[in-house]
Design brief:
Blueprint: H1 2-18, H2 48-62, E1 67-74, E2 88-95, E3 99-107, E4 110-111, E5 115-117, H3 137-146, E6 153-159, E7 170-175, E8 180-184, E9 190-193
Antiparallel strand pairs: 1-2, 1-6, 2-3, 3-4, 3-5, 6-7, 7-8, 8-9
């Protein structure tokens, strides 16, 4: 039994290292909460923040100065009231020289190669990437529900809008009625955005 556990650890370390991540970053890929244990979606053995960490690591392996600006997620089936249905993600990064890189999920935890354009991405502050300090997307959804927001949403945006008084990133739930309700990833506060 002890030997098989060590073999599993060795295989996981090898897979992470081949995938462009070093073993030291593997610890940040583990779910930061009970997200993995409660997964309803078979794709969600990896938490959202773990998946985002893979995107950040992949882009920074090619562009070390890349700054995460935004994540845009949607469900392939359209609007939903279940956060685990949001499985298609695109992450946007600022690169030196007023360039922008995007990376698109091709599966849960798998990504296309980054696409770089010679134009800046406007309207976002950089996200200081420290997922160990961030509220998980499931917890954000629970806080949203507890605040009385239970309708279907069409997408979720993970960003820190460039706006006075905003000093943390948010999960912004974009509802089918056109409203936008945000949950702070640090303080967990539920805030209507206009």
């Amino acid at each position: 039994m002890k030997r098989s556990r060590l073999a599993v650890v060795a295989i996981v370390a090898a897979v992470l290292s081949v995938g462009g991540l070093d073993v030291a970053s593997a610890a940040t890929l583990a779910p930061t909460s009970s997200q993995g244990a409660q997964a309803k979606n078979p794709h969600e053995s990896l938490s959202f923040l773990g998946m985002a960490n893979i995107a950040v690591s992949r882009v920074r392996a090619l562009y070390p100065d890349a700054e995460l600006l935004e994540g845009q997620g949607k469900s392939p089936a359209g609007s939903t009231d279940d956060v685990t249905d949001i499985t298609e993600w695109r992450f946007i990064f600022r690169l030196p020289g007023n360039r922008t890189a995007t990376i698109q999920s091709t599966g849960w935890g798998a990504f296309s190669a980054p696409v770089v354009v010679d134009q800046p991405w406007l309207g976002d502050q950089k996200i200081e990437w420290s997922p160990e300090n961030f509220l998980g997307i499931r917890e954000a959804d629970d806080r949203l529900t507890d605040a009385g927001y239970t309708d279907a949403f069409k997408s979720i945006t993970f960003r820190a809008p460039l706006y006075p008084g905003i000093d943390e990133p948010y999960y912004i739930f974009n509802f089918t009625d056109g409203s936008h309700i945000a949950v702070g990833v640090i303080d967990g506060e539920v805030v209507p955005f206009h």
